[in-house]
């Protein structure tokens, strides 16, 4: 209900979208308004509202720094489900997706991405002791494990590519629901990002995280990268964002911003959106 309320409020304050400027003029309009609306999916540690009602997470905290440098002083969260982020962005419900979204060719057909601000491997939530010995999508298929992942997650396709039937995947809203499903015995395994999985099982007495691993994509081990997403018409804003992001990477400030959310040097990356979009 909170997400719906936020979306409704955002819908009443949409800025005009008509523009004759090549590459869009959203940055200028955001500067004039003094605020940028961030689409988040309530996923720890990527973008969420904390127990004090404050917006935080790796993407929102990075957004605060970059947009301030771009002349936009405030950020406003617009919570929604992960699977609604791209539709919400393209229907003007918010200005940018700040949710640690993976860059992949399918999404690149719908939005334009900044270069990744982090890279990430996958991991599983399993019962304590990992009784089925599940350490890869191949294991899940071969051992006929009951498999779950999140709404709109890239892990859906990784499981399908390994041979799991998409119709048999349990889709849940997020990693907390995934943990609950494993703990309750409704599924044997939930797949997510290594960092998300590691964080969500910390207080669980029944479940644990597996070691991180690279999913197989096109027959090769694959590393994902998460980035901010923009409407295809707003390349000027995306390009300006990238300029500031590169400065933060070069200075080391990016790691300092992301470190409180569990990111390490191993998650820093020079991957580009072009590479992950498929060239």
From TrEMBL:
Residues 35-265 form the Solute-binding protein family 3/N-terminal domain. Gene3D superfamilies: Periplasmic binding protein-like II. SMART domains: PBPb (SM00062). Signal peptide: none annotated. Pfam families: SBP_bac_3 (PF00497). NCBIfam families: ectoine_ehuB. This is Polar amino acid transport system substrate-binding protein. It comes from Streptomyces collinus.
């Amino acid at each position: 209900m909170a997400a719906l309320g936020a979306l409704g409020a955002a819908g009443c304050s949409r800025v005009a979208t008509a523009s004759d400027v090549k590459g869009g003029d959203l940055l200028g309009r955001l500067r004039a308004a003094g605020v940028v609306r961030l689409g988040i999916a309530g996923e720890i540690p990527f973008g969420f509202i904390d127990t004090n009602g404050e917006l935080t997470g790796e993407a929102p905290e990075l957004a605060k720094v970059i947009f301030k440098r771009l002349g936009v002083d405030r950020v406003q969260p617009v919570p929604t489900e992960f699977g609604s982020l791209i539709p919400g962005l393209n229907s003007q419900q918010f200005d940018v997706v700040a949710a640690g979204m993976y860059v992949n060719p399918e999404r690149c057909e719908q939005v334009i991405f900044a270069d990744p601000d982090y890279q990430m491997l996958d991991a599983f939530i399993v019962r304590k002791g990992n009784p089925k010995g599940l350490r890869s999508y191949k294991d899940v298929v071969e051992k006929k494990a009951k498999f779950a992942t999140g709404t709109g997650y890239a892990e859906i396709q990784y499981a399908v590519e390994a041979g799991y039937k998409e119709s048999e995947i349990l889709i849940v809203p997020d990693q907390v629901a995934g943990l609950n499903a494993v703990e309750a015995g409704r599924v044997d395994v939930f797949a997510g990002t290594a960092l998300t999985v590691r964080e969500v099982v910390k207080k669980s007495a029944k479940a644990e995280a597996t070691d991180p691993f690279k999913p197989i994509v096109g027959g090769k081990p694959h590393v994902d990268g998460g980035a901010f997403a923009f409407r295809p018409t707003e390349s000027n804003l995306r390009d300006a964002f990238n300029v500031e992001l590169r400065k933060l990477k070069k200075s080391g400030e990016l790691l300092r911003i992301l470190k409180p959310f569990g990111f390490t040097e191993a998650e820093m990356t020079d991957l580009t959106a072009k590479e992950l979009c498929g060239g």
